[in-house]
Write a structure and sequence with these properties.
heterodimer; A: alpha/beta; Nucleotidyltransferase, domain 5; six-stranded mixed β-sheet; 6 strands; globular; B: Jelly Rolls; CBS-domain; Beta Polymerase, domain 2; 4 domains; four-stranded antiparallel β-sheet; 26 helices
């Protein structure tokens, strides 16, 4: 009960997150922005009952993917869904070093810093993270967000009516090799490649600035 | 942090030099610090004169072209593809780029932090060897050719670290040569030599070297009483001297010494014997830099008493080849050295056989190497292909003369067999009465092949058109060559037939999609690199050389000559020469790895980089075949 009252103030990691995103000076100049391409592997697709198994992320800055600035973390599971193991290969008692959900999320928020999130079907990954934050009584993420699916729709010349492109379809369209599919960091890297190729294309018809890019995405927080 | 991405980068890098030479731990550290960059087609990665980046680059996907502007004219230097390094310059000196790089197609490159690499150069001599070799082998770049000296001067800091990689190092020579005038007496000269503890003295006139006296001259000319110590040095000196210019590399020195069979080279101001003497380079100087050197092997061959010893020396030569290939020494140099060794072995085998018979040859003769040995492209132990020509003799003597040479040839081929050169399965050897004939008979034989080109005969005869003198009388060989060219000149249709046969080996352009591999027998799933890739290039060079009366046999030398004769097709011939070098290197390293003749390459054992490397060789093959098809109108020749 005492803890409950003390919760009035945000834990340090969360107040740092809010402060960093709100005070960032980097967003105006595209070359200065740190983007973080991210992907999560989860036990399933139910926001309420499923959990994050793994978060993989890699930073992009000034059109370069910085391998030294990458992130990969596995989370201990209370809930376990046998069916998805077939897809992502993360077993309940696999060899990976696993952290508790709280430790993992705090580490991730710390890594995220003031970066702009780039993902494929961003809403899903971000909601899963927000659910985890919610369990820590904080959230949702303040970070600015982009979605490779929506950036593609903005620059696509064919199939523009199509609402959703899968990661595989985009890889086909942008000629990105699919290595390490269904590992969080592998998919994050694929997303990063897509983002580099998309921004190169986008630049040709549009001035490249963050706010226009964010506007490609009509249902993520602006 | 070790993770999925850095592991993948690690897996990629470790396939390519110099990263395959680095410990896993260090390579992982590099992998964790890579920057991945994407470039659209034609996007510039860096421009000439740009400030150096903090990274150098390896191509992960796509290709990058390197170019340079000279007086506003854009020169294409190279196209690099998957696994190639570029932008190395800042690694060696803090200077702006001397060439520009841009994406030739959609390209992904890995940027490797130079800061991390400085320590690696210091700790891994082999890495610095590779980097130096990369500079050295880039001869197809007009730029590096011209500025070679400069590039080397700048990498000297790296060179100091490792003395093992000596072939392209500048050779050390004595820059204070001791000399005397032509009218010095032998005695005075010997006193000077003794005082200075040297084994040779150069005779100069106005500082220009005109002759040399070595310990050997004192032994053979003075010691034997032929001359007296009161004679003038000019009477016993060896003249003229073999000269070379000041920027001599170990490799060049070696070839020069081997070629002229001398132990001393005079270094002069401009490399000719018309300018001032600036130094003297002895075989000893080279041995000091070298250790296990080709010159030593040649010496051992000279002293060998039997075929078993020759075999032992040839095995050592194989190890030398292996070492050269590991160090990425230019293949042209390797083939030259190995050919010299093979030639020396054959000569020795002939000398040993003559003394075994106990009778001097009854007539002048030439021992001829055919096929790859004739083209000086033999790096591995392959079959022996040889022939013998003897001078025309009176009919009454013919049988006796021929029997002598058949007996000799049998002994020689036996010895070569012991050394490791297998008998030719088609029996194209001097021990075959058909190929041990007089000059007259050879001329008739060639005329028959040329004027009456029956397909089966062409296939058989091709190998004879690459004949090279190994031992014996040079004039016989020259006469034979002359008559062949003369006959071809009169019968150009022969070239069309030859072209037709040449085109029967189409290049395997579908290498990736359908793997043009052999479908039966022991070599199932293998790629016949000899027939499908090397032979078409050899054939192409041969027919064009016969057409132009070019009297060289070596395929690379032929293409180089063709570049001169047909400047309009320079690019084509240059690409053929480069492809040939790559293929030869490939075949040799495969052969050494599998301990066979390297004819077949196991497709499944090739990594991606090697496949790409092979694939890049197929286009020149196709191009040169197209050219032959058009030029020699092979379509008018009935189907063979």
């Amino acid at each position: 009960m005492i803890r409950f009252f003390k919760k009035k103030r945000y834990p340090e990691f969360w107040s740092t997150h809010i402060e960093k995103v709100q005070n960032s000076q980097k967003y105006a100049n595209f070359e200065d922005i740190r983007f973080v391409a991210l992907d999560t592997e989860t036990t399933g697709f139910d926001y309420e009952n499923d959990r994050i198994l793994c978060i993989g992320a890699v930073a992009i800055k000034n059109n370069k993917i910085l391998v030294s600035d990458s992130f990969e973390i596995y989370i201990k599971q209370a809930i376990f869904n046998k069916e998805t193991v077939k897809i992502h290969g993360i077993r309940k008692d696999g060899n990976e070093i696993k952290l508790s959900e709280e430790e993992a999320i705090i580490k991730f928020i710390d890594y995220l810093d003031d970066a702009v999130i780039v993902a494929h079907h961003t809403a899903f990954d971000v909601t899963m993270i927000n659910q985890a934050l919610n369990r820590l009584n904080v959230g949702p993420l303040e970070s600015k967000q982009l979605d490779t699916n929506y950036i593609h729709k903005k620059i696509a010349k064919t199939d523009t009516y199509k609402k959703i492109f899968s990661l595989e379809e985009l890889c086909e369209i942008y000629n990105v090799k699919m290595h390490d599919r269904h590992t969080a960091l592998g998919d994050a890297l694929i997303t990063a490649y897509l983002f580099l190729k998309q921004t190169a294309k986008y630049k040709k018809n549009n001035a490249l600035n963050l706010f226009d890019l964010i506007n490609t995405n009509y249902h993520l927080p602006k | 942090m070790k993770n999925t991405i850095s592991e993948r980068i690690f897996d990629f890098l470790k396939n390519y030099p110099p990263f395959n030479l680095i410990s896993n731990e260090t390579l992982l550290e590099i992998s964790q610090n890579v920057e991945i960059q994407y470039f659209e087609k034609d996007q510039i990665i860096f421009s000439q004169n740009d400030n150096p980046h903090e990274h150098f680059y390896i191509i992960y996907q796509g290709s990058v072209r390197l170019y340079r502007f000279v007086e506003n004219e854009k020169l294409m230097l190279d196209i690099c593809d998957e696994g190639d390094l570029f932008g190395l310059r800042p690694l060696i000196m803090k200077e702006s780029y001397v060439m520009g790089a841009s994406a030739n197609e959609e390209t992904i490159v890995y940027g490797i932090p130079i800061a991390l690499f400085h320590d690696i150069i210091l700790n891994y001599p082999k890495v610095s060897q590779f980097l130096i070799a990369s500079f050295a082998t880039n001869t197809r770049e007009p730029f590096s050719e011209k500025h070679k000296g400069k590039l080397f001067a700048n990498v000297s800091a790296i060179q100091k670290i490792e003395h093992g990689f000596s072939e392209i190092q500048s050779a050390n020579y004595n820059k204070n040569p001791i000399s005397c005038s032509p009218d010095t007496t032998v005695q005075t000269a010997c006193i000077i030599m003794t005082k200075n503890i040297i084994n040779s003295i150069i005779i100069t006139e106005n500082d220009i070297p005109i002759g040399i006296i070595t310990d050997k001259d004192i032994k053979t000319k003075i010691g034997t009483g032929l001359y007296k110590i009161t004679h003038k040095v000019s009477e016993i000196m060896t003249s003229p001297v073999v000269t070379f210019h000041q920027n001599i590399s170990v490799a060049e020195a070696q070839i020069k010494l081997l070629k002229h069979k001398v132990s001393h080279l005079c270094i002069t101001k401009d490399g000719t014997n018309k300018t001032e003497l600036v130094g003297i380079l002895t075989q000893q100087d080279l041995i000091l830099t070298q250790g296990n050197s080709p010159s030593l092997l040649i010496k051992e061959i000279k002293n060998a008493k039997d075929a078993e010893t020759l075999k032992h020396i040839r095995t050592k030569a194989s190890e030398l080849t292996k070492g050269y290939l590991e160090q990425e020494i230019p293949i042209y140099f390797v083939t030259k050295v190995i050919s010299e060794i093979n030639t020396a072995i054959t000569k020795k085998a002939i000398r040993l056989s003559v003394s075994e018979i106990g009778k001097e040859p009854p007539a002048k003769f030439s021992w001829l190497a055919l096929g790859s040995q004739g083209r000086k492209e033999q790096l591995l132990m392959t079959d022996q292909d040889n022939a013998l020509v003897f001078e025309n003799v009176a009919p009454a003597e013919y049988n006796q003369v021929k029997n002598y040479f058949l007996q000799l040839s049998e002994k020689v081929t036996e010895k070569l067999h012991i050394v490791g050169f297998d008998y030719c399965p088609a029996n194209i050897m001097a021990s075959n009465p058909k190929w041990c004939i007089s000059l007259e008979e050879w001329e008739q034989q060639f005329e028959e092949w040329i004027t009456d080109p029956i397909p089966e005969k062409i296939l058989l005869s091709i190998i004879f058109f690459d004949f090279e003198l190994v031992y014996g009388d040079e004039s016989l060989y020259n006469k034979m060559a002359k008559s062949v060219f003369k006959t071809i000149d009169k019968n150009q249709i022969f070239l069309s037939f030859l072209g037709k046969v040449t085109l029967d080996n189409p290049p395997p352009l579908g290498f990736f999609k359908q793997f043009l591999v052999e479908d039966n027998g022991e070599n199932k799933d293998s790629f016949d690199i000899k027939s499908r890739a090397i032979r078409p290039l050899v054939d192409g060079a041969r027919i064009l050389s016969l057409h132009h009366n070019i009297r060289v046999n070596n395929t690379i030398a032929r293409y180089e000559k063709l570049m001169e004769i047909e400047p309009q097709n320079r690019d084509l011939f240059e690409s053929c020469a480069n492809a040939f070098k790559i293929l030869l290197q490939f075949r040799t390293s495969q052969g050494l790895a599998n301990n066979d003749n390297g004819k077949f390459v196991d497709i499944n054992n090739l990594n991606k980089a090697d496949r790409l490397k092979l694939k890049s060789c197929f286009k020149p093959i196709k191009n040169v075949q197209e050219a032959i098809k058009l030029r020699f109108k092979t379509s008018q020749i009935p189907q063979i």
